[in-house]
Automatic annotation (TrEMBL):
Cofactor(s), by name: Mg(2+)
SUPFAM superfamilies linked to this entry: NAD(P)-binding Rossmann-fold domains
EC number: 1.1.1.133
One term of GO molecular function: dTDP-4-dehydrorhamnose reductase activity
Catalysis performed (reactions): dTDP-beta-L-rhamnose + NADP(+) = dTDP-4-dehydro-beta-L-rhamnose + NADPH + H(+)
Name of the molecule in the record: dTDP-4-dehydrorhamnose reductase
Keyword Transmembrane helix: no
Amino acid sequence: MNILAFGKDGQLGKAFQNLFQKVPLASENNIQYIGRNQCDLSHAIALNNLLNTSKPDLIINAAAYTAVDKAETEYELAFAINAKAPEIMAQYATKHGSTLLHYSTDYVFDGSKDGPYIEDDHRKPINMYGKSKAAGEEAIVNVFTNCSAGQYAIFRTSWVYGDGANFIRTILRLAKEREELKVICDQYGVPTNAGWLAQVSLDLVLDLQDNLRKFTSGIYHAVPSGKTSWHELAALVVQTARDANIALKLKPHDIQSILAAQYPVVAPGSANSCLDNSKLRLALEESGDMSKLQHWNKAWEKEVQSYVAGLSRDGLI
Ligand SMILES: NC(=O)c1ccc[n+]([C@@H]2O[C@H](COP(=O)([O-])OP(=O)(O)OC[C@H]3O[C@@H](n4cnc5c(N)ncnc54)[C@H](OP(=O)(O)O)[C@@H]3O)[C@@H](O)[C@H]2O)c1
């Protein structure tokens, strides 16, 4: 099997590389990791050429334009990377019978729902990044509609943290510099570990022998169970780092709550980022391999605590 993994230098792309290093695939499988230097996804011709020469059986698209605020002005670039590039990958997959894994976001919703979003809820993005990601989802679904060849999974996720810039690392940096901090308390979601996300994605598409398996194409919400606010998450992160004896100026109770409406941002955020994950859990259950559900048992709080402990061990705080 030929695997082409985009987003080599991003949080999720690095998580896939770690995963394949820990549990290498059989030698007949060939993985190519693609970063911006190997292929700029805003260049349709370069992407088409790469696909046609690499001939992937499995395409993992962990790349994206993720600069939410900048997307308000650079929306053409955001659409090229988040909508046009996935469409080209989908066209290749349907033409050659390949499998496409793509990633999307809770930002395709406006956050006004009372309760977690399910996969079939109506998309209503409220910023340009969300619009570009929603357009990417729609493009993939449209290309695959009425095509019998190939299969796809679009994993919607939220609040990703891994090897790269993310909210948790920002809080830790600020906690070293400041004695007080204001963090939004009325936006809810759940943090998703990039390593966990990579693992559950492969659990859906590979069998125990690491061969591609048939699954039902569609959108899946790939987040751990649970719910928190940015404020609660910041307090947990600071407490965990203090417990690991990291010298921080900030104490958890010195993190003040602030309403999103009081916090100036370029692109509006979502009040409700909660995604219902039952569809993906059920699909893994139905795969008949119960070991695939083991990755769901660890609570998100424990994952965050392990992550902060890992940053501390690696001298990254
Ligand atoms: N991060 C979150 O909180 C979050 C939340 C919900 C959904 N998601 C989705 O989850 C997926 C993975 O996110 P992530 O956190 O891993 O993102 P990330 O760390 O920002 O990584 C994105 C990667 O895409 C690459 N990229 C951007 N523009 C490119 C271009 N023109 N050509 C080639 N590569 C390009 C970047 O390359 P460079 O390294 O060269 O810049 C970067 O390595 C994305 O689909 C994202 O939309 C993320």
